[in-house]
From TrEMBL:
Organism of derivation: Ficus carica
Gene Ontology terms, MF aspect: fructose-bisphosphate aldolase activity
The protein's name: Fructose-bisphosphate aldolase
Keyword tags: Glycolysis, Lyase, Schiff base
A biological-process GO annotation: glycolytic process
Amino acid sequence: MASASLLKPAPVLDKSEFVKGGQSILRQPSVSVVRFQPVSPSSLTVRASSYADELVKTAGLVPLAGSNNESWCQGLDGLASRSAAYYQQGARFAKWQVRTVVSIPNGPSALAVKEAAWGLARYAAISQDNGLVPIVEPEILLDGDHGIDRTFEVARKVWAEVFFYLAENNVTFEGILLKPSMVTPGAESKDRATPQQVADYTLGLLRQRIPPAFLSGGQSEVEATLNLNAMNQAPNPWHISFSYARALQNTCLKTWGGRPENVKAAQDALLVRAKANSLAQLGKYTGEGESDEAKKGMFVKGYVY
């Protein structure tokens, strides 16, 4: 249980500090991250690691009444005081760990899209008011047999809602990290898209919005890297980065398997993926020498966070 001293108000940064000044938190070489992780609604656990990765336990995804069997993410209550506490502990970035995802097969309903956008905007505003840089993550699930045009259509609506409510909540755009899904066909679509098509559609959407760091969203490790590489080869005004989980860890974790004797091989596998994505950020990834494991898709239908 967190002590009462951790819940004292922390100094609040003026939002201008996000984007100017030599000590801007976006420019610090060493930063900390606080994750807002839903599990038990009745518990609050603070656990610090060497990277000050803090886990806040809140309520998480619950059914959204009046929607097409969709969900929304609880946890905004008390977020301000928790954010202040984690700022005191050294956190400078925040991640809404279980975001309200948007499902194309379920509509998506206007209600679910609005709820997702509003929740992300409130979380972002609260984070910034307490000195944290929010990672804003509007995710379009891969579930479905729809084509890439349908994904583009839905993503355009979702992003429009997200940025409308970010503005309504006075969120400083320069002080966020955007982490959306790439624009791809549904995982069960018969019409697959090439990396160049994914890049064209995604960059076309980005030119109407803001620069991001992408999640992998169930793509294979190689697919996620190839698509990132294609985006950075195309003319655009941004550096296109990534924030992958499964697309960095899958082969590494399978190689390790929990066995001490596999640690070195697992570390090597992780280094391969890190180097591949580093090259993809420069548009210099070729895909040569990739293992069969890295090419396997990781999409899970109906994946529950």
